[in-house]
Design goal:
By secondary structure, the protein is mostly helical. About 85% of the residues lie in helices and about 0% in strands.
């Protein structure tokens, strides 16, 4: 048990990032179901709303539990939040949609394989954006 705890503490940031990323996916699917199936909102609108809910959940959990970011002012937090959403839009357009289209349409890779590859890319790119840009530790 001590070895597991030691490994967790050594890789805490990455482990928490993956855990909360998985929970973000659940938030995405659950909120989509709520909007589309329970509230009968248009599927495309529901998809957009569920993406927003998942990214907002990811921001809060990444800020608090993964990167332990401490913002001192509302302005700093707003800047951090906007940066987080912007990074998610960029990774979504470039990695998820753009790379997927390139692999499927140009390289003729199977769509399921392409989707798996792009999702791994999105996780890595989002982690890099979050660690080195959005929640970058400030030197005092």
């Amino acid at each position: 048990m001590d070895k597991i705890k030691e490994l967790y503490l050594k890789y805490k940031e990455i482990v928490n990032y993956l855990i909360f990323g998985g929970l973000s996916t659940i938030v995405n699917f659950a909120s989509y179901y709520l909007f589309a199936k329970v509230l009968s909102i248009d599927e495309v609108v529901s998809s957009g709303l569920s993406w927003f809910c998942a990214v907002l959940f990811a921001y809060v959990t990444n800020k608090i539990f993964v990167f332990e970011s401490k913002t001192e002012t509302k302005k700093q937090m707003l800047k951090e939040l906007v940066s987080f959403f912007t990074a998610r839009v960029v990774s979504g357009i470039l990695c998820d949609v753009g790379t997927f289209a390139l692999m499927v349409r140009v390289l003729h890779i199977n769509d399921i394989i392409a989707k798996l590859i792009t999702q791994v890319m999105v996780v890595i790119v989002n982690y890099i954006f979050s660690k080195f840009i959005i929640f970058k530790k400030k030197n005092k």
